[in-house]
Amino acid sequence: MAMLVALVLALCATMARAAVVEHNFTVGGMNISQLCMDSVIYTANEQMPGPTIEATEGDTVVVHVVNDSPYPLSLHWHGIFQLLSGWADGAHMITECPIQPSGNFTYRFNITGQEGTLWWHAHSSLLRATVYGALIIKPRNGTDGYPYKAPYGEIPITLGEWWNKNVDDVEKDAHLTGLGPEVSDALTINGKPGDQTSCRGAGIFEVEVEYNQTYLLRIINAAVNVELFFKVSGHNFTVVAVDASYTEPYATDVIVIAPGQTVDALMTTSATPEGRYYMAANVFESKTVQIRFNNGTVTGIVTYKGAANGTAPSMPAMPAPTDVVAAGRFYWSLRGLVRPVDPPLPTTVDHSMLVEFGVDQEPCAPDQTRCGGFALVAFMNRNSFQFPKNASLLQASFDGVPGVYTEDFPSSPPPLPGIRKATAVKRVNHSDVVEVVLQSRAYSSALGTENHPIHLHGFNFFVLAQGLGAFDPNATYNLVNPRVRNTVIVPGGGWTVIRFVANNPGMWFMHCHLDAHLPLGLAMVFEVLNGPAPNILPPPPEDFPKCY
Ligand code: C2O
């Protein structure tokens, strides 16, 4: 009896804590002076980064979005499972038609079974360069829920990429030239380019800390097209989570982070008291063929309490942009923290897929009016993903609209070399276990290869193995403590094996999170069917943006 009472009390306590976290986001124009230039950019609530959403596991998040921009818009909650709320995933033309200019839509979803650092961003054109923010999920039992000593404070670090130009024009030019977007003009920390650019007096992110305390850095790579190195002078980190999944503690002095990924790292402020320290990020450039890249360094400042005004901060020694060893060591050393409360690694596999992908050249299309010689094209298993024009995949599937997509995405590379431009999905049953060998290939010697951050919507996956060159069927998989992510680096010309349980009906996008590769077709979609009740996708919300 006493136990029952305790149980009921515990249950009530948890239920009482489940709250509704409500936000209003108006995405519209904002004047900004950045890098000594005045321009108009599009942001949520005139903030860049946009508002942070802070919730507790179990909460319901409600975001009322008003589109005051001239662009069709959708917002994606990167890494959120969207259990039975696939309509709210915000993937442009995959789960929804975009919110039209002057339109509005309320995203509503529960956060169940996940905690840590995630983020949200526009999922339509290059708008995500300025429309993004953090999404922080606290454990149900507060800071006691962390599998590490509760930090003294938390410091969000959202890394971004800035263009001195309207980003929608950057995207349009990328298509017209066929060569992808031009290199960005700066990197940013929490929206600020720091003090190492040619613009004197550019904004810089500063944070004041207490001496000898431990802080949790919630680092998000919201940059559009670049992997980044991140360091803080005089300090080391202990990585404790990536992509809102706990890791075994991993000690390092450098964080490596790809677009779409997050890293939670503890940092103890035990450098010289009353000091000031730069935090800095620069590009990790993995391309095997030399090209122009953003070689700037963004800085922020960590100031210890009591530091004298004007103390010059010390600068960390950053890895060289080509330091593939530092990058590989970080990415490949991470191990998942195995806890009884987390979903176990499934041991049997229902779909075993080999997905080969990369970027190639093709003749310019007639509408690519500034294209000279060739245009870039990308594909997975020779299918270059085409966004549907008239209906989102989820709506087409729900309403039975024919002709929007085909269900023949191949489970292995087809024998014939041609490229098919298609909207092809891979259909799987509810709760099927899917294993994918992601194989990066060089298709053109002029283009070479580069790392690709592959992101899967709607699910976390276990990262079982990775390697250089062609996939080795005899490779050893980590079946003990694989790291769990939603975005994984596939090494250029190499491979990575992921496994996930398709336990949520919907249309789930899997794509390269280098924004440059998305319009080229580096994507595919998993269609997950309804399962037995209650695993059935409900109808779309009343105010769902109309496709037809
Ligand atoms: Cu963070 Cu499909 O995206």
Describe the structure.
The protein contains four helices and 32 strands. A six-stranded mixed sheet has the order 10-9-12-17-14-15, with no helix packed on it. Strands 21-20-25-30-27-28 form a six-stranded mixed sheet, with no helix packed on it. By secondary structure, the chain is mostly beta strands. The longest helix has 16 residues, at 2-17. It is 8% helix and 39% strand. The chain starts with a helix and ends in a 20-residue tail after the last strand. The model is unreliable at 1-16 (pLDDT under 50). The chain has three domains: 2-145, Cupredoxins -  blue copper proteins (Immunoglobulin-like, Sandwich), CATH 2.60.40.420; 153-333, Immunoglobulin-like, CATH 2.60.40.420; 351-528, Sandwich (Immunoglobulin-like), CATH 2.60.40. Helix 4 links the parallel strand 22 and strand 23 (420-422).
**How many helices does DSSP assign?**
4
Bound molecules: CU-O-CU linkage
Distance, first to last CA: 57 Å
The CATH architecture of the largest domain would be Sandwich
The gross shape turns out to be: globular
CATH superfamily of the largest domain: Cupredoxins -  blue copper proteins
Which CATH top level class of the largest domain fits? Answer: Mainly Beta
**Biggest sheet strand line-up:** 10-9-12-17-14-15
- CATH topology of the largest domain: the name is Immunoglobulin-like
The overall pLDDT average reads 95
* Content of β-strand: 35-45%
Q: List low-confidence stretches.
A: 1-16
Largest sheet properties:
6 strands, mixed
Radius of gyration: 23 Å
User: Number of domains in the coordinates?
Assistant: 3
Q: Report the helical percentage.
A: under 10%
| Category from helices, strands and their pairing | mainly beta
Number of strands: 32
Main location: secreted
Function: Lignin degradation and detoxification of lignin-derived products.
GO molecular function: copper ion binding; hydroquinone:oxygen oxidoreductase activity; oxidoreductase activity
Enzyme class: oxidoreductase
